[in-house]
């Protein structure tokens, strides 16, 4: 299978461009077990994007993280099991333009069921809602080069698995969704070497990029 090619694109930049002035449901908006640390470092993704959305609602299974952010004045956030998404009727009052599912799917023991629940939620609220999925790429150059030479596996403590373009595409389509757009994307990094290397590798293949970006919609 010939893999897609694209220019080096920043993950946060492309997300920000899509959700600007939109109504967004952010799934898995905390960053357990790092929520408090990232909040105080001003690096928590939900806080970074809140100001650019017309309205943003967050749900997460991590009750302690949700309660911590509520104590800091963050509004429209709920403790919710993603697999039970359609049972939370308080979420049905909004017609979301986008559902943001960023760096979450790799944390779930049943990713296919999660996508099916999201599809059901979209059908019950706004069939025109688009779903953004981002996830680490198994062919990430840091996995293939830096970690390999150090004989280490750099992995979040809550990750179950990693995806490639082909494996996640299969899962998305089997869940009743269609892929509107796909890109290999780069995570914003201030290290000059980690910015230069992917640009060099992209001359040969975009598949070395650290993250996968999918924009999906209901199959029509």
Helix-strand layout with pairing:
Elements (H helix, E strand, L loop, with lengths): L8 E2 H9 L3 E5 L7 H6 L4 H6 L4 E6 L2 H9 L5 E3 L18 E5 L8 H15 L4 E7 L4 H10 L14 H10 L2 E10 L5 H10 L9 E8 L2
Parallel strand pairs: 1-7, 2-3, 2-5, 3-4, 5-6
Antiparallel strand pairs: 6-8, 7-8
Main attributes of the structure:
alpha/beta, 8 helices, eight-stranded mixed β-sheet, Rossmann fold, 220 residues
Task: Quote the beta fraction.
Answer: 15-25%
Order the strands across the largest sheet as they lie in space. 1-7-8-6-5-2-3-4
Task: Report the mean per-residue pLDDT as an integer.
Answer: 90
Shape: globular
| Helical coverage, percent range | 25-40%
Order of helices and strands: EHEHHEHEEHEHHEHE
What is the CATH domain class? Alpha Beta
- What is the strand tally? 8
Radius of gyration: 17 Å
Number of domains: 1
What class do helices, strands and sheet pairing give? alpha/beta
Number of helices: 8
Low-confidence stretches: none
Gap between N and C termini: 25 Å
**Major sheet characteristics:** 8 strands, mixed
The CATH superfamily name is Vaccinia Virus protein VP39
User: What's the architecture in CATH terms?
Assistant: 3-Layer(aba) Sandwich
For this structure, the CATH topology is Rossmann fold
């Amino acid at each position: 299978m010939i893999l897609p090619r694209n220019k080096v694109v920043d993950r946060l930049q492309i997300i920000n461009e899509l959700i600007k002035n939109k109504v967004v449901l952010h799934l898995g908006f905390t960053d357990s077990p790092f929520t408090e640390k990232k909040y105080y470092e001003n690096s928590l993704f939900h806080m970074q994007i809140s100001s650019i959305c017309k309205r943003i609602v967050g749900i997460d299974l991590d009750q302690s993280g949700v309660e911590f952010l509520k104590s800091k004045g963050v509004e429209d956030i709920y403790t919710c099991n993603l697999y039970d998404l359609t049972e939370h009727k308080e979420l049905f009052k909004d017609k979301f333009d986008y559902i943001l599912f960023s760096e979450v799917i790799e944390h779930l023991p049943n990713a296919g069921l999660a996508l099916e629940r999201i599809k059901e939620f979209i059908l019950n609220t706004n069939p025109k809602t688009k779903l953004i999925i981002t996830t680490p790429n198994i062919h990430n150059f840091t996995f293939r080069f830096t970690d390999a030479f150090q004989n280490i596996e750099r992995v979040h403590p809550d990750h179950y698995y990693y995806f490639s373009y082909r494996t996640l595409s299969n899962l998305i389509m089997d869940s009743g969704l269609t892929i509107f757009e796909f890109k290999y994307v780069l995570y914003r990094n201030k290290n000059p070497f980690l910015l230069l290397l992917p640009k060099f590798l992209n001359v040969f293949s975009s598949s070395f990029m650290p993250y996968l970006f999918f924009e999906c919609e209901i199959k029509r």
